[in-house]
Structures are given as C-alpha cells and as structure tokens.
Design brief:
Layout: E1 6-11, E2 17-18, E3 33-37, H1 39-45, H2 48-52, E4 83-85, H3 87-92, E5 98-102, H4 112-125, E6 130-134, H5 138-150, E7 153-159, H6 164-172, E8 176-180, H7 184-195, E9 201-203, H8 212-216, H9 218-226, E10 234-238, H10 243-258, E11 267-273, H11 278-285, H12 311-320, E12 324-328, H13 330-344, H14 350-365, E13 374-378
Parallel strand pairs: 5-13, 6-7, 6-9, 7-8, 10-11, 10-13, 11-12
Antiparallel strand pairs: 1-2, 1-3, 4-5
Helix pairs in contact: 4-5, 5-6, 9-10, 13-14
C-alpha cells in the first residue's frame, strides 16, 4: 500500500502539471503550485475507520500528504489539537454552538508547526540542504525548530517589530537570523537575494513552495473528523498569507471527492485587522486579488501581510463557500482577548481574538444565526504575546496585608 498518493503538482492558475518529485517553487507564471493526489486510489486504500485507529497526529492522514516514505517524517507530535466548546462565551454572544480549534497547544505554540512539519519533511526527502524564509515571527520559529530536527540549515529574516519570543526560538534552535527595519515584504526581498548565493537552499516563503499548505490543510481534516465526519456551518480564520484558509478549503474538497463528507461546505470567513485589510478591501470591491495595503500595522502581528501571494485563492475559497471577509479593530481584539480568557479560562493569541470579534459582529448583524455550529481558529498560544495584557496590580510589602473585598 502506498504511504502517500501524491500524484503531481498543479499551477493554481493555469492547471499546468509539474513533477512532484523534484524541488519546486512557483509555477512558470509565478503562481503557487498545489499538490494533487490520486484520490480514487486513496479512496480504495483507506477509510475513515482506518484513520480513527491511528496515533493522534496530523500524520494520521498520510495518504493525503506529500511525504512518500514514513521514514522521512520529521515530527514533534503535531496535530489533533482540541476542538473546544466555548459554551459560556458563545452563549454571551448568541452562538451557543461555538467551538474553538485551539492551535496554541501544538509544538512551538502556533499552527505554523503544521506547515513546518510537512514542508521540512518533504524538503529533506527531496535532498534540500537548507531552508530560507521571511517571517512575521511564528512561522520562522516553527520552521527553525523542525529544520534543526531534520539537520537542515535555516536562514530567517523578520521585521524588527516581530514578537521578541520568536527571535529567541530561532536563536535557540540554531537558525541564522536577521532583523529587518521594515515589514515582511522587505524581509522577503532580502531572503530572495540571499538564497541565490546559497547552494542547496530552498526559499520556503508562504506559498513559494507547495507543501506548507498541505500541513495546514490538516486542520480541516481534523475539524471534520472531530465533528464525527460532519461539516460545521461556519469557520472563521485570521488571514495574513491565508494559507490555512486555502488549506481548509482544499481539505474539504478532497474529503468530498473521497466520499467522506456530504452536505454544504462551511462558509469560510477571512478575518483581518483594520490596520491591514487588503483581502477584505478586495472582497468588498469584487476584485479577484488585493492591492498592497499602505502603512500596515496591527497588534495581531501574524496577519500583518500587506499583499499576500495567494490572495486570489483566499478570495476564491471565501466566495465559493458563500463566506465573507471582515476587518476588526485592534481595540476590539484586545477587549475580546480578555473577554474570552475571563469566560473560558483560555489565553488566546490576538489573531485568534480577531476571529472571536468577527464571530460576535457577524452574529449581531444576523450573518451568523443562533443555531449554527461555528468554529473559530485560535492560531496560537497567548503566552507568545505577553505584551497584549497590561499587568497593573498592587505590590505589597512583605509585612503588608491583602485588603478585604469591597462591600
């Protein structure tokens, strides 16, 4: 039996086929390549019941992942994160069926570990010696960790304003790290120039290699499996590069072809911050791709992407599922982060908090109905963003007293 039913790579615009067993970047027209599988053969080879008996990692779906050999897997146990009922908070905003896919509990503390696990595994399998990427922080930290495990070199450039903990993660795992006085696009230009002079290095920027999306799509497989192989009504996702949203849409399409799911697809919601909302602007104007967003800035640093390479794929996914795109304010993000923590005892990341703001606002507008089953992606642990909570509390002398509660 085949470990992977990977067939070929396909240009996301022209449909042209590419060899999946050599290192590939973008297509001839400069667009992302998407991994395609022999789904008919996979359907005959594996069932949902087979998957249920496997270890609780994303590799339980290995037939639909691009790594050819089990021995090539580079893993830290990533995947099968909780799908947690948010009953108290959900009831407070009128969505009692609200669920949170909590990616803060994955290795390296964010969903970026999914793309890193699959991307690094496949890169090593194809003979890549090192990987290079620009990052807003968390992706670089994840790819550096998995590259270290695979004994690959890592070259990373990130904006100087990226979360400081992600710098420490990169340095701790031995990455070659540079800080850039600019945004992720500026870091990308430096990486692109540097890779040309490094033998055996592959640029693994968002969607410039085809396998990060394959790791991210497993969120879609997991959500559906965790719901008893049924589809939710709505999935809200914080969209910077948008790889996870594209991946979830791809996963649902694959599961439909495999005969594993039926019924209408969940309405996909691309959530951005008002300070960086190129995809929202494109969606509202009816455009098929975005325009670079000027002066991008937001507390949700992970979605500070002024122009995403795969923006057209995000917009396709949203429109094909009758979803929407919505921008929320930094003030609302910080307020919702606290509201979720107080109601549910979970410290989420600002990107995840943006999705909770969007869920509340879409419920208020009637776009989400009270009886719908809604999934919010919390893409990372709040502990990675300590600056989002102001700790202004009294300091007592060692011989002091804690005051009695107010009457």
């Amino acid at each position: 039996m085949s470990f992977s039913f990977l067939s070929h790579l396909e240009c996301s615009v022209t449909g042209e086929r590419y060899d999946a067993d050599v290192v590939q970047g973008l297509s001839a027209v400069g667009k992302p390549l998407l991994a395609r599988y022999d789904l008919e053969a996979a359907r005959a080879a594996v069932t949902r019941e087979d998957i249920a008996g496997r270890p609780p990692t994303l590799w339980r779906y290995h037939e639909l992942l691009p790594v050819r050999s089990e021995s090539a897997i580079v893993s830290q146990g990533e995947g099968m994160t909780p799908l947690t009922p948010m009953a108290k908070y959900g009831a407070s905003i009128g969505i009692p069926g609200l669920l949170m896919k909590d990616e803060g509990l994955i290795p390296t503390g964010t969903f970026k570990a999914r793309g890193a696990a699959v991307g690094i595994s496949r890169a090593a399998e194809l003979g890549v010696r090192g990987v290079a990427m620009p990052t807003n922080g968390n992706a670089g930290a994840a790819w550096a960790a998995y590259a270290a495990r695979a004994d690959l070199g890592t070259l990373i450039a990130m904006p100087v304003d990226a979360p400081s903990i992600t710098r420490a993660e990169c340095v701790a795992t031995g990455a070659e790290l540079y800080l850039v006085d600019g945004l992720i696009g500026d870091a990308g230009k430096l990486i692109n120039e540097a890779v040309a002079s490094r033998d055996g290095y592959q640029e693994v920027s968002t969607l410039k290699e085809p396998y990060r999306i394959e790791g991210k799509k497993t969120m879609g497989y997991e959500i559906v499996e965790q719901l008893g192989w049924t589809l939710p009504d709505v999935i809200l996702y914080p969209a910077g590069g948008g790889v996870g949203l594209i991946g979830i849409h791809k996963a649902i399409q694959e599961m439909r072809e495999l005969g594993w799911v039926q019924g209408p697809s969940p309405r996909l919601v691309a959530v951005q911050a008002e300070g960086c909302a190129p995809i929202v602007k494109a969606f509202e104007s009816g455009a098929t791709e975005s325009v670079a967003f000027p002066d991008a800035h937001t507390i949700a640093f992970g979605i500070t992407v002024p122009k995403a390479l795969g923006d057209f794929l995000v917009l396709e996914a949203v429109r094909e599922t009758e979803g929407t795109a919505i921008a929320v304010s930094d003030a609302d993000i910080l307020a919702e982060l606290g509201a979720v923590a107080r109601a549910e005892g979970t410290f989420i990341c600002p990107e995840g908090a943006a999705c909770f703001v969007a869920a509340r606002q879409l419920r208020e507008s009637g776009w989400i109905s009270e009886g719908e089953r809604v999934v919010v992606l919390n893409t990372g642990a709040g502990l990675k963003y300590p600056e989002t909570v102001a700790v202004d509390v009294p300091t007592l002398a060692k011989d002091g007293h804690i005051p009695a509660p107010a009457a």
